[in-house]
Structure formats: C-alpha cells, structure tokens
Amino acid sequence: MLPSFDLNLYDDLDPAPRLLMGPGPIDADPRVLRAMSVPLLGQFDPQFRRFMAETQTLLRRVFQTENEATLLIDGTARSAIEAAMVSLIEPGDVVLVASFGRFGQLKAEIAARVGADVRVVECPWGSVFDTATIEAALIEHRPSLLAVCHGDTSTTMAQPLAEIARLARDHNALLLVDATATLGGMDLAVDALGIDVCTAGLQKCLAGPPGIAPITLSPVAVERIRARRHVEAGIRTASDLPANGKRITSNYFDLAMILDYWSDRALNHHTEATSMLYAARECARILVKDGLGAAIARHALAGHAMASGLAAMGLALYGDQANKMPNVTGVHIPAGIDGDGVRQAMLDHYGIEIGTSFGPLHGKIWRLGTMGYNARRGAVMTTLAALEACLVAAGAKVPQGAGTSAALGVFQRAGSGR
Amino acid sequence: MLPSFDLNLYDDLDPAPRLLMGPGPIDADPRVLRAMSVPLLGQFDPQFRRFMAETQTLLRRVFQTENEATLLIDGTARSAIEAAMVSLIEPGDVVLVASFGRFGQLKAEIAARVGADVRVVECPWGSVFDTATIEAALIEHRPSLLAVCHGDTSTTMAQPLAEIARLARDHNALLLVDATATLGGMDLAVDALGIDVCTAGLQKCLAGPPGIAPITLSPVAVERIRARRHVEAGIRTASDLPANGKRITSNYFDLAMILDYWSDRALNHHTEATSMLYAARECARILVKDGLGAAIARHALAGHAMASGLAAMGLALYGDQANKMPNVTGVHIPAGIDGDGVRQAMLDHYGIEIGTSFGPLHGKIWRLGTMGYNARRGAVMTTLAALEACLVAAGAKVPQGAGTSAALGVFQRAGSGR
Hints:
The structure is a homodimer. By secondary structure, chain A is an alpha/beta fold. Chain A has 2 domains: 30-287, Type I PLP-dependent aspartate aminotransferase-like (Major domain) (Aspartate Aminotransferase, domain 2); 292-414, Aspartate Aminotransferase, domain 1 (Alpha-Beta Complex). Chain A contains 14 helices and 13 strands. Chain A has helices at residues 30-35, 46-63, 77-88, 102-113, 131-141, 162-170, 190-193, 219-226, 255-261, 274-290, 292-312, 339-350, 377-393, 402-414, and strands at 19-20, 69-73, 94-99, 117-122, 145-149, 151-152, 157-158, 174-178, 197-199, 213-217, 328-332, 352-353, 365-369. The two termini of chain A are 44 Å apart. Chains A and B meet through helix 1, helix 2, helix 3, helix 4 and helix 10 of A and helix 1, helix 2, helix 3, helix 4 and helix 10 of B.
C-alpha cells in the first residue's frame, strides 16, 4: 500500500510546477503535451494508419536508419528491450551483456527472465569498456546476442559503439543497443554502426512522456523473428502457417505479430495506444523539423555548461569525463553534506528535481539531467543558482556566483540564443 | 511496411472529426484528453505518489473492491491479462479458459504462451455458458486458474458471473475476469462476486485512451504472486531474499515487483507512464463523481435505445438478447448489402465509425458501441440517422425514420436529459 496521503479524489490535477532536472523523466515539450489532447481515432481508420506511417518515417530519421521495422512498443522503455529479447532469444541461447551500470544489470535481468544463458562482462562504474575486453568476452562466450547500453544514466557514462558493433559482426552476434537515455541527444547512427536492435523511450532526450517505446530492427533481426511467427488463434487465416521456429513466449511482446500489426495487412494485435502514438509522432516531428544535428549540439552545449558550472562551484564531477553522456552529469555530494536533504530543499523551495543514483552510488552522487526540453540555458542557469543556494544553506562553502558565471560563459561563447 | 500514404511529416495532428461508435476505442471524454496535457512529474515526487494513491482509491470504487492491490499496468488492456497470467501461472499449471468469442481465444493464447497447460471450454458464439458446462469442465480439468471474459465484444455477449465465481471457489481455482469491455458500463462487484483478478482497459466504458490497464488482485492472488518475488539485481537489498516460488518469466510484467513499485517502499521498476496515469485517474474520477450506478444506467439506456432503433429499422439483432452487453450491439448485415461498403460510407460521409467482427462473424454482423463518452442520446441518434441513409443509399429497404423514432422514444420515456 502506498503511504497514506491527504487524498483529494475529486480535485483537479493541479501539481505545483516543477523543473525536472534529474535523469528523467524530464519536462515534456508543451507541444507534445498538447498533441495528446487530439481526439482519438479508430486503430484502423485510414487517418490513424497514416499517422502510424508518418511516425515510422520520422523515427527512422531519428534512429538514422532505413530499417522498415521501425515502430513503437506500447509500454515504457524497458518494454521494448523485453520485446526484442523475448522475440529474439530462445531458451538457452547465450546472451552477453556488457554492463557498466544499473541499466546493464537490467538487461541481464530481462535476458535471464526470458530464458537466456546470460553471461555478463562488467567494467567499473564510472568508466566504459575498452575494445579488448569486449573482444575477449565475445571469444569466450560466443553469444548469439550482445546487449549494451549506449548511455547508462546510473553512471552517466556513454559507451562508444563503433568498435563494439564491428566486433559483434565479426563474432556473429546480433547487437542490441539500449538508447533509452541518448536517442536524440547523442549521435547514434543505427545503420552506419550496424546495430541490429535499438530501443528507446520518449522521456529523456525526446522530450515526451514515458509510456511508449520506439524500436528499430535490422533486416537480419526481423528475419530471425519472422522464423518464430505464430499468428494467434482468432486472427490467423489459412495462409498464416506457423513458422518453424519456437513460438515466442509472450503474446504482448511478440514482435512477429506486432510487425504484422504495423504491416499493410494490419493484423489485429493490441489496440494501439492512440494518445501515446500522437506523443511519439510529435516528439519525432519536432526533432526532425529542428534537425537532429541541432538537437545533438544543443544537448552537448547544455551538458557542457552544467558540468562547467558544477566544477566552478568546486564540486567534483563523477566518472571518466572523456566518456560522459552530454545529457546527464554526475557530481560527488560534498563531504559532510546531506545529499537527500539538499535534493529535498531543491524540490520544496525551488520546485527543481535532481536525482541521486542506484546501488553503490546511492547518496554518493547527484545526477543532473540536461535533456530534451530542458537542454536549454534557462533550465541550466536556474538549477545552478538554486543548487548554490541550497548548498550554502546546508553549510557548504561555495564560491559565490561562480557556477552560474561559468555556465553563462559557456552559453555566451557558443552564441546560444536560448 | 504500411501501405504508402501521402505522408505529411510536418503537419499538425489534425484529423477529420470522428464519432467512434464501434467496439472501441471510442471517443475519450474531453476532460480525459485535457488531463493528459498536465505537466509531467518525477515518478518519486510526493505529488505524483499522491496521484498514484488517489488513482488506486478511485479504481477500487470502480472495481467495487477493497483490494489493496489495485493498480495500473503500463500497456494496453491485454497487457494486464498477460501480467496476471505470467505472474500467477507456472509452466505446466492447468488453466481453464471459458471462451465464448475471440477474446476468450486470446486468453487461451496468452496462457499458452506463458507455459500453461491450457484447457478450453467453448460455447457457441452468440451465447453464454450455463453453469453445468462450467462445473463439468472444472471437475474434468481441475485447473488452478479459470479465465473468462465478462463481456466479449466480438460476440457482444456478457457472461453472468455469480455462479461461475461460486464454482471456481468450490473447485479451488482462482478466477480471472477480463472486464476490458464492461468495467464502468455493467455492474461488476469484484469483492461481492469473489473475483481474484480483474483486468480492464480505459478505451471502452471508462471513456479514456488505450494504453494503460487497470487491474485488481485479491489477497489470495497477491499471496501467490509474492511467493514468486525475486527483486531484480541493482534494486534488491540484503532484506529482499528471493522467495521460494519460481521466478516470474517476465521482468516487465512481474507483478511482485510492480506491487513493490506501488508500495510505500517505492522500489524502482518501470518509470510510470505519467500522462496515461493522469488519464486513468481522470477516467475514474469522472466515473466516481457521477456515480457508478448512474454510469451503468446510462450504458443500459443507450444500448437499449440503439438496439431498439436497429430493430425498428428492420435489422435482426445478433445473438442471445437476454445476455447481450448493454454497451455493444451486434446486428446482422442485411442480405445483399455490402457490409464493408456501408461502414466505409458511414466513415467517409458522416465521420462515424462502426465495426464488423472477427473470424466467423467477419462481414456477417456489424457491431455498434454505445459506451463511455458515447453512451449518450446524441451519439445514438446521429448514428441511427446516418445508418438509415447509408442503407438506403446501398439499396436496402428501410422504413423511413423508424430507427430514430424508436430510439428517441426510449430516451424520452426514460426522461434522459442527455
């Protein structure tokens, strides 16, 4: 049971304003929020099928792919990872997870649940893998699938992928990249790199709400999934002979059926989450309209300004700075300062949310996001000013105005107008 | 690949208006659409946790239950069925599905995917089960779980549940009721009946968008699920010892972890689908504010008016009228009339969507929904007027004005103001 609140069952939804500067969700772009108030359509209405097709086309540009199989899973970001894994992995298949944080652990967990023989290679939190470690693990384990985060928000690290993708190809492993926290905020060229499965969520750099998950699948991945196609009773016709491969052990996440639903046969599966599809289309539309390159540059600038501001305040940045995600910055909580108390003060007095982290980093670092709608000057500056005030109130010594001044300098030198 | 559309990638979402009078989704209540444009909150923000608690409390009233375990699954309606099944059923468990339409088949499909030894008892489409048939099947198969639809939109039939619930108890089977299409539109007293698992969706009688699924679980069901609790790596602490039961073979649908997420420990699992939770809260708030009894009466009246109007037009109603769902009406397509042509004319010329059905009923019947926001006089009257015009245009002989006159009489005799 949730703790007892003073419930106001009939009240309007009228939360106090927040500025969400944690590792996500972040504030959705107001245009995305408005898109969700568009009236519903029937799922087979030609107008709705056109919106689905437009969403696919826009998402292909976001993923930098020509993959026909580019679509949405109706669930949060981890649902797309599970859909890919349960559809690709047969019980006993060896899956190698290269884990450099909590979301690597999550992929190992999901793979184990769906029956994989999971092997995990780890590197210390706060760093990323070198090529030799991955190569050795591929040689040792000979996996059919290699799964890795692009950016793991738990450690704020971003794994360079080019060499890993090459190694996966050389060792005949499909490559699954979890880009939940980086798509739209870092360069991620799915086709150029040769990624087989790439998954995401809306609530990070795409500036939308959590609840629907973009995914793209290479032709090789699709072929492997189609080999397990078993159309459900009540939908299949005489022409839908079961494929030879083992039936996928989930109905909801059966990508063979979901691909049929998104195909011109429009075979009934789930009822597409209409309003969330509108949100996904709007997220992708804004990103493509503004230009993917511009969005990536905006994230780089805002992240650099945030990190510069935090460093100028005398805080120690967390982790290998050469491989830091631009859109999430980790910073050590100063000795003697109650990290959760400062977070609470930020929320209560300024309406600003920042994050802590998981496991070994819980209470050791704060994580500050600068992504999506909040990868912008005003959000960074406000957060730094409030953090200085909260640190001072908590008894820390912080050079007055140094953080905001450093960040503003970064924005001004870049000529950023926003 | 979806068929090629004339894509307008940068266009606003500006669909031509529709009146959705099929078996769902139907038009969302405008208040629900507006609720989704409320700014996002962090998932552990006290304000958001309060909205979660309020949503639970409101949903308990909608389900007529005291079940503490009343919450949302972040997916479409079938996701809640799969979550319940994968969390309750261990491979090899005998599951009995009482199937009287396509959504009975779906439950058998989901149960089989998650590894159940599935037994199916069927009755002819257009009818419902008598008690003796269910009792005989329970005796023959001795299932640990009995799954049944409350209302199956594919046939428009509603299964009386009191005797089935009693039998399930007597034979030590948990009872799972799929109330996707009836919750909020028909009386369904989860506790009074003794239902162990009840699942729904928003896009039918609850007047919301598809994409999030209410579920309630009895203490007995919760106990069985908790016996399989294995908190994922990266989240579990030393106190989270794995339970003795078999680990659930899905991470996303692991109800033991989802219950922890909704508990006062707030253990991290998925990131709650913020905007869809807002929608669910608003759907339930409107229903509870207006009164569940009033909503059920409104559905009964609108369905009666629709059926009376169709009959007065000379159309033959489909199925056992004593057990028809109030909120969906099936009607035989008249001989010599192109059913899909009439549906297309309804959509193209009037902006009104009605449905056909699945499998043996495809092209044989139309299905007309009167539910949620569209269980109201204007929607019923407009649909009947347009259908008469489309039938006449297609060459059918229809008594002029008889349908609308009969339906209006029903509304007026009931003194319905809306």
